[in-house]
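Slide 14.
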Amino acid sequence: MSETNSTLWLSNAQGLPLALFAYSVLFSFAVNTSAGPDYAELKGPPHNYWTRPLNDRFTELKAKLEAGSAQLKYTSERDTLASILEILEVPKHSQLLLFSTTSLQLSLISPRNPRAIYFNEDLYIGFIPRGRIEVVAMNPELGGVFFIFDIPRRGESIRVERSTRCMNCHASEDTGEVPGLLIKSVIPGPNSGSLTAYRIEESGHAIPFSERFGGWHVTGEHQIKKHWGNLVGRFQQGKLITTPNPPGRKFTYARYPVRTSDILPHLLFEHQTGFVNRVLEAGYRARTYRHSDGNKLTTEHELQLARQAEIVLRYLLFADEVPLPSPGVTGVDDYKTQFRSNRRSDSKGRSLKDFDLKTRMFQHRCSYMVHSAVFQGLEKNFKQRVFTRLKSALADNSTDLASEHLPPQERRAIREILSATVKDLPATW
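Slide 15: predicted structure.
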């Protein structure tokens, strides 16, 4: 597990005088190195994962799908999928193709029949030709809620099931024991199975490119030379030998809505996964501590939440982002247009969704995921704690380690964009 030792300024929820506290900032989302997390079981209070009423984006739309009132196309699996994505407002050009057997429907996945993933900020859709459609919907309080349904044929009704088996992996050590997102980087064998794995239990934009994309197809213009994408492997005399598996050689793109597995959605999917998992762990901890402490936090729980706030802060500000190799990445124009369609801008037209793509992902290095359901659903006091730290880190004259990579002009731009686009900032902003 990668880590860097830093001395950081931590504040409490009330904004009292800051105390200097030294600790290790983990690039993974887990801070507690003891055996297992110290927050409550998901099924009971205060989380009530299985009984809490759902208010995620997919739940709002699934009644329309089940009632048959959605205008779906039935000419092919591909066309039906494309129409479902359109109804759910998930860009089809976010398509990522993977051929590793790391899914609930692993028996259907192979280099000849890749799985596809599509996503926006709050929904993640999985599709395998001749398989079922998988949905991860980001609930504001609960995080990932998992659904699965058959692709409708000949106009029959959709019957959506809430999946329990997905939780075996999506609420495990890989996600900090909360219902989060999961990215595997493995070297698939020539037929099935995985020969070796990379970046275990880690996610996010700090992961070196040399550990990414194993078992995935990667297309598009970029200069990321050393990665594990587009490869299969075999062991020969105890040594791992890899051979190319170019996109489209062993399968036909005609099964999928588009002909890409573009580098730009790969980068954003990694960023979002790291964001979701960190924020969800912090939210589950905050909810657990306040419940167990009778809404008055112990000193130890204050310190734990201060650490969590620091991790979220550094991630929000891309403090540990791996730089893009020159001259950067291009990205599919259609995807860039779809991604920016819901951009929130300030009076100067600036947005957290404005791309850089030369040395880094974004011009203004504060995550657009601050507008996502999982961040907006954070426990109120913890979110205010993050905002308090964010204001301090973004001051023009700040010496904060979380923002030392940001020049004063960029900090000022981020402050102004947040002030114009985030509704629940503290009054002191």
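Speaker note: The first helix runs from residue 57 to 67.
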